[in-house]
Structures are given as structure tokens and as C-alpha cells.
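To: structure subgroup
Subject: Chain for Friday's discussion

All,

I'm putting the inputs and outputs inline so they're searchable in the archive.
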Amino acid sequence: MKKTNIGNILSDYEQETLSEIVRKIKTGFIWIKKCTFIIILLFFNLTCYANDAINYQAVIRNTNGAPVANMLISVQITLLNDLVNENVVYQETHQVTTNDLGMINLKIGMGTATAGVFDQINWGASTFYVRTAVDLTGGTNFEVIGTSQLLSVPYALYAKKAKELDIANLTDTQISDLVSKLNLADKATVVDSKITNTDYTPVAETKDVIVYQAKSIFNIEAVLGKIVVKKSGGTQFQVGTDGVNGSFGPVITLNSSTFPNLLPNSSISNIILLPWDRNSSLPIPSRGWRCCVITTKGQIYHNFPNRAPSSGKPDGDALDGDIYKWDESVIWDLPNRRLPSKNSNDFPYTLNPCLPNSCYNLYPAVKQDNGYGNGGFDIKTTHLIEGESVSFPRFYMPKRNLDSSPIAYMSGFETSDKIQIIGIYNSNTTPENASRICVFITTDGGRQWFNKYEFANNNTLSLGNILNSKNLRGEYTGNSFSAMKRNFIYPSSFNKEPSELFSYSNEIKIQSISKSDTLIVTTVIPHNLNSGDIIVIKKNDNSPSVFDFLVNDNINTKNGGNGKLWKILVKNPYQFALTEYIFNPNTNLVARHIHGINKLKDGFIISTGEEYPQSWFIYLQIIGTDVWTIVNAWDNMNFIRLNSSEKGIQRSIGTFMIDDEFQTLVYGSDTSFTPDSSFTIEGRSIKIYRGSNGIFKGNLADIDDFSKFTCIYETSQSAYFFKNINDIWIFTGQQGELAISIDKGVSWREFLIPFTDINKTSQKFYKGIDELGRIYLDQLIIYRK
């Protein structure tokens, strides 16, 4: 039998660390047998270079904690295998210059050796520790600044000292010795992650990642552990409780007999699965779930309906078959918003008799019990928050169709143990697809959703309903009202924290207001306005008028007054029509829609589009590690704007933050060009603009300076989706590009999903993760081997 040197067997696996080996053995990717056991030695890496050195990086700080920047210093590296007895295996010195951040980069093994021989270290013999000492003057008077365990060793260094072994004839003693040193069991438990569901077929595979693609557009719609929902048509789906490879229950059809109060011509927009426990007082769900069906008309339904409450059982007792029983969910609005009414101006209503009749209908209807004994929902709900009673009105939906549904989303869906969150994505480019831009949160499995944060909008044709005044009784008195244009004061590089949020143009007196199918305002002088401008109407006298519902006399530079703002459609230099301004009247942060929401260990980052001033990064902190803290959807929550500048990073499809020294931001770009992405040639007047498609990385402190962010993966397509899910970074492009990183962006696995049509190849929706850690997108299942 030929003897083989271990260091020459598997050079393909230089990127693998020992922790990867352990995981793969436990999941069955590596089988421990005599003939292949030696392979384990080669799955080993700590950024090793061809010259057998270890890349080492550190930040040097002075006694005040400030980085020591741009200074030539001496560094002493000591490798020990016994901290108690201070046994030095190897020691060397370097002279390096710190960068602007105090960072040094050096290669252990390439310094000036002062003790031991680096090439003769037996890396498999014991645990190793790295001790760092520095002399800030560049001399040899070293002061120790830290000691840490070397948790993994480059395979090239390990293999270099490995003995020649007869692989086929390893003795039990040799195997036991290797198992002991690597802290492994001598047998592995194999977990079968293969997808046997015949609706899917494998389309891509590397040594560590497999990708499956659905064979049709109707496939897995939602996943939560072993709970799986399969969509089998525009109005049909099935629920399974034994994983993607298991069986599914009966077909459920979206119709008014199964889904009470269902609006005509509704179909399924999305289905999501949320953690929830009936009658639980625990801070996080432990075993239960709910399924929520979101329709194209903006209704939400949930199964396992609440039943008649009793002592200690606010959700009531479950009955057999509740998995297939559906009740309508409710959405609550921000406390300062109002519902339009034809005849009332008292909370939670605001008077506006000029809207289509459908605007006054509520779904679900007030206190409508759908036969479950829970009493339905009132017109408002009140909760005690930080000692104050706060009321939330029903959420107002100006229009109910697929293009303007306020519950439509793209990659703006995330779920955690504490809360579940949706960020709204609609085109918002025409009156037909205009919708409010909100962040909704639930903590009861989707039975009640709360609008927790809402953006403003400055798109020209993002218009609400046109006012119809033909049925008003009474006439307008000439010149009794005036109109003012409202302007946003955005955060910028010149003023990151503007104290004034809005400004207003000069008042223009209104000569007449029509009573017609389209309410037309005529001004005394040319108004100089454009379609899509936002205006405020003020009274010039105290005389009551049938048109007083248009007035907002409390408007100011810091908020929206009574909330009455209007967008206009210009008819001629003296006339314009009034339409609803349906967006948040109290903020200067405008957006077209929410691109994505990414989960962090302690909250979420919300990313909006498009470019500045519509591109914002909002951080919502939810302390997930404090498992005993109960979070309710109605609680006060702190939404923090991170960026401010027109020169900063923009148009992210997904953003997450790494909890390291610099709070590193990583984001996927959804734009072709970004400010300051141009380059010049000396002596020439031309400018070259480089595309900013890709995944970028930088420090939180530099969020307002795009030039300080580095592209860590150049994409060929603009992004549709970018998330970090269980330490797997997934990017999808708009026409089938797929990139996956399992080492925090150091390397990428690149795929082009077979092209059939835009809906099949563009992965925009996160469907969930199952009990084996497999990740589900629109038509894809992705998992590590």
C-alpha cells in the first residue's frame, strides 16, 4: 500500500476550519471511517498563505482607549502552549505602521524570530495561545496588551507537520489519538437534509451548499420549522405539519364561506407563518404557531381563532379542527392618525365627506364576531403604556387592490422570538398604486397588527382619492381660505438634525371651491404649483363653512397639525384638483417604499428606496437576549434614523450590522450609480462613473460617506434580496443571479438560476426556515451540507 503525506491530499479545502469539520461530521457531510478519517486533518484554516504564515490583525490603542494612528511601532508575537507555566513555543518581532484607525496587519511566521522555529511547531500536539506585546516607540521595551487562544490552525501548517501514514491501515490507537486531539466522537450522527419533495429539483451544488428550485410557480409559500404551507393556486393552499418532505392536509380555498367577510375577487397575495402560543404568559412562544393569509384586497386572516375568553384564558379554549378555521385580523393605526367619516370629527374620526363610499367601510366590521365567541374588534383599542392610556384607531386603507395594498411587501418580512414585522413595498408611482408606507408589528401570531412607523412621500403621482364635492350642502365664501405649499426639510450633510422639519410658501387666497365630481380650487392669483405638490389650507376668518373639513389651522414647521394635508393635480395656472395626502403628515422622512428589513441579534434595520432623499436606514432595537422581557406590539418602540447625507450609502435592498468594534454595516445595493462614484483622469475633463451594483461593507460611523465603503462582492445585477440568515449571506439579483457566502463575505458561491421567466428567477420573498436550517425563498431552497 502506498504511503501518502497528509499535507498533499486535499488542497481544495484550504478555507475550512476545524469548527466546520466538527459541524460537517455531526451533520453527516463527513463520514468517519478508517480509510477516510485522515481527511479531517486537512479541513483546517486560519487565513494561511502559501508561505505558511498566519494573517494577524489587531487595533492598537493608548491608555486612554484612543486608536494609535499612523505610527511606526514594534510588535512582539509569542506563541505559548501552556499559560500556567508560560511555556513559549515560538516568539518573533515585527515593525509595522498603524493605519488611520490604529489597525495593524502582519503575518505570524514572517517576523524576526527570537525564540523557537516556526516551521517546526507541532500544531496538533496541544492548545496554542497568542500573546501580543507592543512598544509604541518602535523599540524593544515591549508591554503585553493581550493573550487569546488560537481557536483554529491553518491546515497547511498542521499538515506540514503531519506524519506519513498508511491511510488504509490506520490502527485503532491512531484513530483514537486523532479523535481525542480533535475532540470528536468516533462515530457521527448523520442528518439527512436531502429534499425529496417532487415539486423541487436540485439546480446548483458546491462542496458546502445545495440549491433546489421549484418546478412551477406554485410551491412552498411559508415555512416555520416543520410547519409548511404549499400554495397550489391563486386561491388555494395546503398546510403540512411534518416538514417539506412530509404530507399535506386538505386543499383550503380562499372563499367567503371559509374566510368570513372576504371581499369579492380576492386572491392570495402572501402567506406567512408566525410563532404563537394560545393563552401563554411567557415572553416568547415555545411551540405554537399561526398561519396568516394576506389577500390582494388588503385583508389578513389567521387560523386557530380566538374563542370566548375565560379566567386565565384570554384566547379561549381551542377546538378540534381550529387549524382549518379562519378569522379576520385587525390593523391598528398610529395614535395620532384618524379614520375618515362622512359626519363626525371626533376621535377616532376626521371629517371628510368627499371620498368614495368604500373608504368608510371597515374590515373587519366593528365588533363583528364571526361565530367564535371572541366579540370581534372595536373601532379603537386602548392600552396602558408607561403609565399613560393610549388609544389606537383602526388603520385607514384609501384603496384596496393588489397594487395599492398596504400589506404588500418584498424582502421586508422578518420574524423573531419577540416580534414579527412587515415593511410595505408598493410602486407608489401612479394614483392607482399609491399606498401608505408603514412598518407593521404583531406579537399575537398575526391576529392584531399595529402600524408602528410610517414614512412621508414626495412622489409626484402618489395620490390618494380625488375629492368629490358634488353632494355638499352650502357654498364657499370667496377669499375666506388660503393655500400654502408645504416643503420638506430633509436631513443632509449640512444639517443632520434639522430642528424644523417643514417650510411653507406664501399664502395664496382661494377665490372659489367647486361642488362637482372633482373638487376644483381656483386661486386669486397664479398659484405657481405643480401636480403632486403638497398644500395646506387655512382659514382667513371665523365664519363657519361647509368646506371647513379642508382646513388645518394648527399646521407648523414641526408636525402636521390636525393631519389635513392635500396633494394637487394642476388644471391650469389658476386651478387645481384636491386629492388625499395619505402618508404620514408628521415626518420629514420621505420614501417610495420599504425595500427590506433585516434581523439583527438585538433588533432590525429597515432599508427604504429609492435614492436620497428617499433612502433611509432605520434601526429598531428589540433586546432579544433578554428572554424574560415581554414585548407587546402596542409598546413604545425606538426607531432610530442612522443616515443623514446625500453623499452616504443609498438604496439598500437589505442591510445588517455586525456587533464588532466598528459596528460594521453590510448592505446590498439596488442602484447602478451612487454619489461620489465618479473618477477622473489627470489632465482630462472627463468623468468615469463606476456602477455601484454589489454588496458593500463599511463602518457605521461612515454611513454618510459612500466613498469609505468597500465592495466585497461585485454583482452583475441590481439586488432584489439580501439577508443574513443563520450566518448564511444570501444575495439575489433581478434576473436570476444568486450569490451565497458562508464565511461572512470572505468568499462567495455564485450561481445563475435557470431562466424561465422573471417571476421564476427573481427571488424577492423570504418564506422562512425549517427544522434543519434550510432556507426558503420564492422558488428556492438553500442549505449548507
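Points worth raising on Friday:
Residues 9 and 39 are 8 Å apart (CA to CA).
DSSP finds four helices and 52 strands in the chain.

D.
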